[in-house]
């Protein structure tokens, strides 16, 4: 029996055996709130994204939506597109994840005028 | 056609849960194989060599060949 916990959910990286484990929904809500800060600055955006990318998960569409809107508030189109590239890379060999994310984010991408890397032709090296 | 939500969490954990036992298992097997196919035969070869080894005879053969400085061949 491996020593790591058997449930896939917890991503708060401390492995305490006692204490409340954060649910997926609490995790998502925390990150949506983080990126929803009206006066978020560039550093906080980058820090948030780098931390989020460090977890063993691909961020949910609603978290990414919040991050993309933060990019809009910061007039940072480059970071918005980079976020899309990052989550595609996070999915690794699981090729079904990125198309799903783009499908879910389509309204946001249209509203904010964000092109996908594929539309820009920068997804091929 | 609307895509269904795929599994998005714990993908690395799942991969490791599968591959790590295999990795440790194969490493262990490799170590066992090396022990019994290399180190044990090697140790046995040394043991067999030295079981019948006559060090005095070997010393005298070397002495006659003149390779020592401390003792010359018996003829000189």
From TrEMBL, chain A:
Gene3D superfamilies xrefs:
Cytochrome c oxidase, subunit Va/VI
Q: Which GO terms describe its molecular function?
A: metal ion binding
Which Pfam family name is an example for this entry?
COX5A
Family assignment from sequence similarity? Belongs to the cytochrome c oxidase subunit 5A family.
Q: Which PANTHER family match?
A: CYTOCHROME C OXIDASE POLYPEPTIDE, CYTOCHROME C OXIDASE SUBUNIT 5A, MITOCHONDRIAL
What this chain does, per the entry, is described as:
Component of the cytochrome c oxidase, the last enzyme in the mitochondrial electron transport chain which drives oxidative phosphorylation. The respiratory chain contains 3 multisubunit complexes succinate dehydrogenase (complex II, CII), ubiquinol-cytochrome c oxidoreductase (cytochrome b-c1 complex, complex III, CIII) and cytochrome c oxidase (complex IV, CIV), that cooperate to transfer electrons derived from NADH and succinate to molecular oxygen, creating an electrochemical gradient over the inner membrane that drives transmembrane transport and the ATP synthase.
- Report the protein name in the record: Cytochrome c oxidase subunit 5A, mitochondrial
* Organism per entry: Oryzias melastigma (Marine medaka)
TrEMBL record, chain B:
For whether the record's keyword set contains Mitochondrion, the answer is yes
Q: Does the keyword Oxidoreductase apply?
A: no
Q: In which pathway does it act?
A: Energy metabolism; oxidative phosphorylation
A GO CC term attached to the entry: respiratory chain complex IV
Membrane topology qualifier: Single-pass membrane protein
InterPro entries according to UniProt: Cytochrome_c_oxidase_VIc (IPR051389), Cytochrome_c_oxidase_VIc/VIIs (IPR034884), Cytochrome_c_oxidase_VIc_sf (IPR037169)
| Location(s) in or outside the cell | Mitochondrion inner membrane
Sorted alphabetically, the keyword list is: Membrane, Mitochondrion, Mitochondrion inner membrane, Transmembrane, Transmembrane helix
Q: Which GO terms describe its biological process?
A: mitochondrial electron transport, cytochrome c to oxygen
Q: How does it assemble?
A: Component of the cytochrome c oxidase (complex IV, CIV), a multisubunit enzyme composed of 14 subunits. The complex is composed of a catalytic core of 3 subunits MT-CO1, MT-CO2 and MT-CO3, encoded in the mitochondrial DNA, and 11 supernumerary subunits COX4I, COX5A, COX5B, COX6A, COX6B, COX6C, COX7A, COX7B, COX7C, COX8 and NDUFA4, which are encoded in the nuclear genome.
Q: Which family does it belong to?
A: Belongs to the cytochrome c oxidase subunit 6c family.
Q: What is its biological role?
A: Component of the cytochrome c oxidase, the last enzyme in the mitochondrial electron transport chain which drives oxidative phosphorylation. The respiratory chain contains 3 multisubunit complexes succinate dehydrogenase (complex II, CII), ubiquinol-cytochrome c oxidoreductase (cytochrome b-c1 complex, complex III, CIII) and cytochrome c oxidase (complex IV, CIV), that cooperate to transfer electrons derived from NADH and succinate to molecular oxygen, creating an electrochemical gradient over the inner membrane that drives transmembrane transport and the ATP synthase.
Q: What is this protein called?
A: Cytochrome c oxidase subunit 6C
Q: Give the organism the record lists.
A: Oryzias melastigma (Marine medaka)
Q: What is the phylogenetic placement of the source species in the record?
A: Eukaryota, Metazoa, Chordata, Craniata, Vertebrata
